[in-house]
Amino acid sequence: MATGFSGSSGVDTLTVVLDVNGDPKKVVSPSSNGVSLTVKELLQFAGREHWLDEQQKELGRNYKEGAALPYGPVGRLTGIEVTLRITCYNSGNVPNSLT
């Protein structure tokens, strides 16, 4: 089970949120009150915008005759797992791909 994280820096920090392909999708200015993401944004950034309503075929088919969802339950019923990777850089070690 994931736990919360809280932290701060001695100076304001620019935050750039990248999608699953590494493309910048959201920029949070140093003067804001932190980073806030909606579930919709998380799913868009993961490249699975409709994940909650898609059948989760990897969980196995529903063998009940006449089942409304024969190829697996939807994510709203099973839950989904989204992993966030957080990487911090100071101004001296930002990768060229992010500048």
Would you tell me the structural class of the helices and strands? little secondary structure
- The end-to-end distance, rounded to whole angstroms, is 34 Å
Q: How many β strands by DSSP?
A: 2
Task: Please bin the fraction of helical residues.
Answer: 10-25%
Question: What low-confidence regions span 5 or more consecutive residues with pLDDT below 50?
Answer: none
The biggest sheet, with number of strands, parallel, antiparallel or mixed sense and barrel status, is: 2 strands, antiparallel
Strand order of the largest sheet: 1-2
Q: What is the overall shape?
A: elongated
The run of helices and strands is EEHH
**Over all CA atoms, what is the radius of gyration?**
18 Å
Number of DSSP helices?
2
**What fraction of residues sit in β-strands?**
5-15%
Mean pLDDT: 80
Could you characterize what this model shows?
By secondary structure, the protein is mostly loops. Among the domains are: 14-49, no CATH class; 55-87, no CATH class. It has helices at 39-45, 75-78, and strands spanning 15-18, 24-28. A two-stranded antiparallel ribbon has the order 1-2. The two termini are 34 Å apart. The model has no long low-confidence stretch (mean pLDDT 80).
